[in-house]
Design a protein that fits this description.
Elements lengths: L1 H12 L2 E6 L5 E4 L2 E2 L14 H22 L8 H14 L1 H4 L3 H9 L2 H9 L2 H6 L1 H12 L4
Antiparallel strand pairs: 1-2, 2-3
Length: 145
């Protein structure tokens, strides 16, 4: 799963080696790393691609652990559907993902068709575009997109 989620997030978040403000105004670097929420002491910019991937690996681990605390059942999901929730957490933040009550209940119940329909019916789906389309398909099929 680690390789798949790293590749997917690299595509979806993009790579920026200098600090920039994301579309919500948060200081960001690398592959979607929010410096306001998770500062990096002693950061020297620009960073290298290797550093960006290292930071991303740590972010994936941190967010995965946080999701497991909030949604313990997530460990029972196949890798691709687990990856959907990780990817959405990068896009929305974990608190934002936790607002998807119907989607999460359907995912937990294994009702993946309805979970995908829940995703498609959200404002997030319209706002995010192709990324949301791919993640919805991934939820539906259980195959990495």
């Amino acid at each position: 799963m680690i390789t798949n989620i790293i590749d997917q997030l690299t595509r979806d978040e993009g790579v920026r080696l200098d600090i920039y403000n994301d579309n919500r105004g948060f200081r960001t670097i690398g592959i979607g790393h929010n410096l306001d929420a998770n500062p990096i002491p002693g950061l020297v910019t620009p960073i290298t691609l290797a550093q960006a991937k290292e930071i991303l690996g740590k972010d994936v681990e941190r967010i995965s652990m946080f999701l497991q605390q909030k949604l313990p059942w997530i460990v029972n999901l196949d890798d691709a559907r687990h990856g959907v929730l990780l990817n959405m957490s990068f896009n929305l933040g974990v608190p934002g993902l936790l607002e998807f009550h119907h989607n999460l209940a359907d995912t937990q119940a294994g009702n993946y068709a309805q979970a995908a329909a829940d995703m498609k019916a959200s404002a997030w789906y319209i706002e995010v575009g192709e990324r949301a389309e791919r993640l919805t398909q991934q939820m539906l099929t259980g195959e990495w997109q």
